[in-house]
Fold this sequence. Notes:
Oligomer: single chain
Structural class: alpha+beta
Largest sheet: 4 strands, antiparallel
Amino acid sequence: MSKILVSIFKSSKRNExxxxxxxxxxxxxxxxxxxxxxxxxxxxMDMLLTSERKLARVDTEKxxxxxxxxxxxxxxxxxxxxxxxxLPEELLSFNDPL
Length: 98
């Protein structure tokens, strides 16, 4: 599969959880258990995925292959340490006892 037109939905239950599906199928191939865990799916955008296109947090090839195999790709939120800002050491120890 060299290209696929996808629709991307965000979860109402978990911040930064996204569901990628083929645009023509929308949410038809999503298992009921995933619907329940995902919550209300809010459409974010449609996008043409190609092997050359880079995505910010996920491998494009993996997204495309999972959509082909399972009918969807679920992007989980990043681990907390991935989005904790790195502060200078003097700020990190600011409130430490002397």
